[in-house]
Amino acid sequence: MTEVLKAKDFFDQGVVPMCVFRVLASHRVREEHTHDFYELMIVVKGVMRHYLEGVEMEVIGTGDAYVVHPGRHHSYESLEGQTIEMVNVLFQLDRMKMDFRDLEELPGFQTLFGENDWEGNYPHVRLDARDLAHALSIVASIEREMEQLAPGYEFMVETKLRELIVFLSRKHSHVLEPKGKHFLKLGDLVVYMEQNLKQNLRFEQLVELSNMSPTSLRRAFQHSFSCSPMAYLQKLRIQQALLLLVDPDLSITEIAHSVGYSDSSYFARVFKQEVGESPKVYRQRR
Q: What is the pTM of this model?
């Protein structure tokens, strides 16, 4: 039987109708359920299968954001042996004082938040390291406002949620149909990559591990993650570095080594390329 989640069990009455909670588990399974509010799932780390109305839509991983509309049935599970870290933002747009008429022409808004049947263009956004960091910073601002409850916090929370909606709508990209037979192979390979970020992984190793030809592996990654295998590995390394930079006891050199970069200067250049600022500046702003 499908579990039905109600807003009254998540949101305090009389205050802004939204909440944020974080998931961190070695193996996460969420049975099919539905709810009378929007759910924005942002995958910070890991890979999982997502099912919508009982149909496997795609494997989603680090940097993927998925909007589940009220009344939609969905479920998800992380791949075996995979640690999943996810931020879930729950909210009710109809109870907020937001006017979205100026967003109707914004690319992606109708697909992500409009009332439509999608027709293959699903409410999903794939974010690179820089965009993921920005989205998470907006969510962190929402969390701070809801924790501190300073005067005017409801206005600030709704403003930040609107900022997040606009940002994701602008970043929306067309999501292709389910990718087929390479799903599980890619999932297992990504698990291996995440568990071996410190290693000097080469493309030839990934080919051997995947049991695919070099051309097939490149095509499968491009189809599923919109980048090459080595570019995806770089994104995983930088995303892990973003998480580690929160710890002030770790030096930037230590972080660089822990995510597979023996040269901290090269790490800093790659980090700036992905995130838009140096590791030092990023840490100072947090």
A: 0.65
Give me the CATH number covering residue 201: 1.10.10.60
For the chain, the C-alpha Rg in angstroms (whole number) is: 19
CATH number of the domain at 55, please. 2.60.120.280
Lowest pLDDT segment from 8-12, 156-160, 169-173, 250-254: 169-173
Show which of 153, 171, 189 is a domain's final residue: 171
To 5 degrees, how large is the angle CA 87–CA 91–CA 96? 145
User: Per mean pLDDT, which range of 51-55, 70-74, 191-195, 268-272 is the poorest?
Assistant: 51-55
Q: Do residue 79 and residue 155 come from a single domain?
A: yes
Residues 161 and 204 in one domain: no
Q: Supply the DSSP symbol for 93.
A: G
Strand ranges in the chain using DSSP code E only, listed in sequence order = 3-5, 18-25, 29-35, 38-45, 47-52, 55-61, 64-68, 74-78, 84-91, 124-126
SS3 61: strand
How confident is the model over 57-75, as a mean pLDDT? Answer: 84
Q: Burial of 257 by CB count in 10 Å (0-12 exposed, 13-18 middle, 19+ buried)?
A: middle
DSSP β-ladder status, 18-25 and 124-126 = unpaired
Domain, as residue range, for 158:
3-171
Token couple for 16: 């802004």
β-sheet with 74-78: strand ranges across: 3-5, 29-35, 74-78, 47-52, 55-61
Residues 140 and 272 in one domain: no
